[in-house]
Specification:
CATH superfamily of the domain at 193-280: Phosphatidylinositol 3-kinase Catalytic Subunit, Chain A, domain 1
Shape: globular
CATH class of the domain at 193-280: Alpha Beta
Structural class: alpha+beta
CATH architecture of the domain at 193-280: Roll
Strand order of the largest sheet: 2-1-5-3-4
Order of helices and strands: HEEHEEHEHHHHEEHEEHE
CATH topology of the domain at 193-280: Ubiquitin-like (UB roll)
Radius of gyration: 19 Å
Number of helices: 9
Strand content: 15-25%
Number of strands: 10
Oligomer: single chain
Length: 282
């Protein structure tokens, strides 16, 4: 792992999205306003709802789901990724065409506790299941980065729990105290950057890996990586075949000249994947 710019890392960690939760679809005035971390997940919002609001206090959390403009939101995607995908793309997550929008805040989301869309979503999990899924993602990223999961598997149970609790309690220092052990490349050598690419028009999510350096030993850039994975969209000279095409992560448009290692070290989500949204500029 290269030297991290803590100011940038902390700014990304503390990035939040203001949301307006419509608690009663019949009464749009029955709402709850929250600020949620971009890296968080909807099951953590559910935990807040069931513990803090009288309406959902006795509701089975597995039956709760969230909708934006008629579209069920996937609970296993980070909230910041969901926001970027829906409001920066010309299509919805389900592939339905929609007019390109300028992101609007607060993000208005409708909460449901019945008529669960079984054919679209898995049941909203409990926090223990959510923690297991999150740790599985970290292990997968560790394998893609180093060729093994030793860094994660060698963590104590307390450290593994701390990674999740830091997300739950929004404690940056607690998270990085453990995660820097996973990303420490001394004596192992970096294998690659784990990344996922999200494209419009209902295209499948692309999971791939990218080297930090090319065959000559020079640092690879974001543009180099995207040209290798999507040559039909990204040219070798840092231009795109569609001049309006941009790359977004954490709501930020990234220049294609950005070094991929810097991008990975500073802009990866807490699961250690780069979740890159490919979309057209507003």
């Amino acid at each position: 792992m290269t030297e991290i710019d803590k100011d940038i890392s902390k700014a990304i960690w503390h990035g939040k999205i203001p949301i307006q939760l419509v608690l009663n679809p019949v009464d749009p005035m029955d709402t709850l306003f929250m600020e949620v971390p971009r890296y968080s997940y909807l099951p953590l919002v559910t935990s807040h709802l069931t513990s803090q609001t009288e309406r959902y206090h006795a509701t089975d959390p597995h039956s709760i789901w969230y909708e934006y403009e008629g579209e069920p939101l996937k609970w296993h995607y980070p909230i910041g990724l969901l926001y970027d995908m829906i409001l920066r793309m010309g299509t919805s997550i389900q592939g339905q065409q929609r007019e390109q929008q300028t992101p609007s805040l607060p993000w208005r989301i409708i909460v449901h506790d019945d008529h669960f869309p079984e054919t679209i979503l898995l049941r909203n999990p409990g926090l223990e299941t959510m923690q297991d899924m999150y740790m599985s993602m970290i292990k997968e990223a560790d394998f893609l980065r180093h060729g093994s999961t030793k860094r994660v598997m060698n963590l104590s149970k307390q450290d593994q729990s701390q990674l999740w609790q830091a997300l739950f309690s929004e404690k940056y220092e607690d998270y990085w105290r453990v995660n820097q052990t996973i990303l420490d490349d001394r004596g192992i050598g970096v294998r690659s950057v784990p990344l996922r690419l999200y494209l419009p028009d209902q295209a499948p999510v692309i999971q791939d890996i990218a080297p930090f350096t090319n065959e000559k030993g020079d640092s690879c850039t974001l543009g180099d990586v995207l040209h290798s994975i999507l040559p039909s969209l990204f040219m070798a000279d840092y231009t795109t075949k569609d001049t309006n095409l941009i790359v977004v992560i954490h709501g930020i448009q990234l220049p294609l000249q950005t070094p991929i290692r810097w991008t990975s070290d500073h802009l990866a989500y807490p699961d250690n994947f780069l979740h890159l949204v490919i979309c057209k500029s507003s």
